Amino acid sequence: MSTVPLPFQLVPGAVGSPVLLHVPHSSRVVPQEVRGGIVLDDAALETELDHITDAHTADLAARACETGATAPWRFVNGLSRLVVDPERFPDDREEMLAVGMGAVYTRTTHREPLRAPGQDPGPLLDRYFHPYARAMTAAVDERLAATGRAVVIDVHSYPTAALPYELHGAGPRPPVCLGTDGFHTPPGLLALAEAAFAGFGGTGLDSPFPGTYVPLKHYGKDRRVGALMIEIRRDLYMAEPGGPPGPGLDALASALADLVDGLTDM
Length: 266
What we know:
Blueprint: E1 8-11, E2 19-23, H1 32-35, H2 42-52, H3 57-67, E3 73-77, H4 122-147, E4 150-158, E5 176-179, H5 187-196, E6 203-205, E7 225-233, H6 248-265
Parallel strand pairs: 2-3, 2-4, 4-7, 5-6
Antiparallel strand pairs: 1-3, 5-7
Helix pairs in contact: 3-6, 5-6
């Protein structure tokens, strides 16, 4: 965990593609200066990373880009969400604050202390969260300028069994959960996703994880920005928790490529 890559990376796709695959939670990298503020010992931190990381989703997105007819753009977080979670609201609008998982986590997936009480989240937000948000906003603006629209597809995974931090863990846990937004997820986008992932045992909506990611500049304001969250149950493609990928990864990448191609042709 001592080697720190770029905090995030925008991987170019086809000039005419409106699609931006967003991979925010795939990394296990915690910079040493951030590690010092985490109270877990090394073994406990590795266990927490097993639970909280959307393992292999960056690989899944990369394979989808190689498989489809038109390569989408990719925005990939190079740091663990234990540094900051770029998909949270950075203020009191964030419901996950109730379990210590706002933009800067203070609790683990099992609701145990992650950081000491009273730590100021401001430095982490300034160094990591806000630059990430600005870069994602710019990436969406670039797709709008190039194609007249942008479609943000979040690529996530979630555990087969609910973890204690989940606010909606008592609901259905379908093979593929599609997170939607009433403003940014039009029916055509949802229908394409349901068709693309129909072969994995079914899809469900907004359970156990609801909503989508849209930069705040566009959120609830610009209908040219479409958004959908794809949450893949981990038993479809990997050994849990934190294990290697299995053969399901290629099939899921093919399905994601089908969705991207359908969106490009809309």
